[in-house]
Design goal:
It is a single chain. By secondary structure, the chain is of the alpha/beta class. It folds into 3 domains: about 100 residues, Alpha-helical ferredoxin (Fumarate Reductase Iron-sulfur Protein, Chain B, domain 2, Orthogonal Bundle); about 120 residues, no CATH class; about 100 residues. About 45% of the residues lie in helices and about 5% in strands. It contains 23 helices and 10 strands. The strands form 3 sheets. It has a 4-stranded parallel β-sheet with strand order 4-3-5-6, sandwiched between helices. The chain has a 4-stranded parallel β-sheet with strand order 8-7-9-10. A two-stranded antiparallel sheet has the order 1-2. Helix 11 packs across helix 23 and helix 14 runs parallel beside helix 18. The longest helix is centred in the middle third of the chain and has 17 residues. The chain is globular and about 70 Å long. The termini are far apart. The relative contact order is 0.11. Bound molecules: iron/sulfur cluster (2 copies). One iron/sulfur cluster binds next to helix 2, helix 3 and helix 5.
């Protein structure tokens, strides 16, 4: 059950969490090796079990919502590796989203500074950015160019340094060529930041979809999946985004998504909006590799290129369809698996900007796992199906491409593939 921020109904608990979800954790600790923040800190409070224990303590009134509790909750990457590993089926995603929502609505006062850790002005700015601003493509495109130029002039804020160096003019310049509206066989969800900064990926996804003899279109207007707002605890903004997305894709055609985080968010609209039409919408959503793997095989040439497959957390732990990436790429590339069982890279949406030190430490662990299988060798490519991971891994020095871009490179042109599609 997801709680609403801002209001505490009479008799409800400090965090408003579902007690059945909280009590489901039996403290076995099997999730600990799968938690990136636990792996880099070794601290119980930075583990899933420690966070759930802290939530229970606050819910039962034995401890206040203080700075330490808030810091532990904000340090979670929300990768949900713990959820996939948990034998008791603990819905950690619900628990942390509900907790973040309550924290966003009522940040505790920092006793050392005598003021809220997030001021009302800061929250207003955050809500403005996470709300409609994310659907203004001109603003996102402008900010992309700002980051590229800032990189050249060496005037990037410290928190953005891990992100900015990896935006290239090429990325920001390429626009999606997919037609808006109409009655396509499938819709491609193009999103907000990715649409402004990584149009080449959408074009490659559309090319791969068309190669199956299927028409593809995009929404009449730009929409955001709401994942960034949800992870920041701004659930009302996330719901507003979700309602706009549901309205933007009429009919019954499948909705195909080429960003793992966006796809995971769309597939969980049924829970977020808690209504039948949102559940029906979520049932139409497919990750692009999942959809392609279920279609007839693509006409691919063998490239001889080695590709190290990085699993985005929201593809592996939330959508749980990461094997489809191997299915579609395997016909054209020599695939290599890192030996870290899909450990998070530390990108986590805005995590690299909000928790740069932890994100850096988690990223270094990931880099070591990738280097161990030769991902840093010349000519070797890392495949990443999530824009945040791509930016993070490029910052770590790897050559990274989206799997659909690799697929598009390997497609054998077919006579029946019409340009007009
Ligand atoms: S979340 Fe699951 S795996 Fe982790 S300690 Fe609790 S019951 Fe065990
Ligand atoms: S969501 Fe990820 S970072 Fe957060 S507790 Fe679970 S495994 Fe750890």
């Amino acid at each position: 059950m997801i709680t609403s921020p801002g209001s505490t109904p009479p008799g409800s608990t400090p965090l408003g969490l579902d007690p059945d979800e909280l009590v489901a954790c039996v403290s076995c600790g099997l999730c600990l090796p799968h938690c990136p923040t636990y792996r880099v800190t070794g601290l119980e409070i930075a583990s899933p079990r420690g966070r759930i224990t802290a939530m229970r303590t606050v819910e039962s009134g034995l401890a206040p919502i203080d700075e330490a509790f808030t810091a532990a909750m904000h340090a979670c990457v929300q990768c949900r590796g713990c959820e996939a590993a948990c034998p008791s089926g603990v819905a950690f995603g619900h628990l942390i989203e509900g907790t973040r929502a309550r924290l966003a609505a009522n940040e505790p006062t920092d006793p050392n500074r005598g003021r809220r850790s997030v001021s009302r002005v800061q929250r207003l700015v955050r809500r403005a950015l996470l709300g409609r601003a994310l659907t203004w493509s001109w603003l996102l495109r402008l900010s992309g160019w700002g980051l590229v130029i800032g990189r050249v002039l060496h005037v990037i804020p410290r928190r953005l340094r891990s992100t900015a160096p990896n935006l290239r003019p090429f990325d920001v310049r390429v626009r999606s060529t997919i037609e808006r509206g109409g009655r396509p066989d499938v819709w491609l969800f193009t999103g907000c930041v990715m649409d402004a900064w990584m149009g080449a990926t959408h074009n490659a996804a559309a090319q791969a979809i068309r190669a199956t003899g299927t028409t593809v279109g995009r929404a009449e207007r730009n929409v955001c999946c709401g994942a960034l707002a949800l992870h920041a605890g701004e659930q009302d903004l996330a719901r507003n985004h979700a309602r706009r997305v549901v309205a933007a894709f009429p009919g019954a055609a499948p909705i195909v998504v080429d960003a793992a985080g966006c796809g995971a968010a769309l597939k969980e609209y049924g829970d977020l909006l808690d209504d039948a039409s949102a559940r029906a919408f979520s049932a139409r959503v497919y990750d692009v590799h999942e959809w392609l793997a279920s279609e007839r095989s693509l006409p691919l040439r063998t490239t001889g290129t080695t590709v190290v497959v990085h699993d985005a957390c929201h593809l592996r732990h939330v959508q749980r369809c990461h094997t489809a990436v191997r299915s579609v790429l395997g016909g054209a590339y020599d695939l290599v698996e890192p030996a870290d069982e899909g450990m998070c890279c530390g990108a986590g949406g805005a995590y690299a900007a909000t928790q740069p030190e932890l994100a850096g430490a988690i990223g270094e662990r990931k880099a070591a796992a990738l280097r161990a299988v030769g991902a840093d060798r010349p000519g070797v490519v890392v495949a990443s199906a999530n824009p945040g991971c791509t930016i993070q891994l490029r910052a770590l020095g790897f050559e990274v491409r989206h799997p659909v871009e690799l697929l598009a490179d390997a497609l054998i042109p077919q006579p029946a593939e019409h340009e007009s599609r």
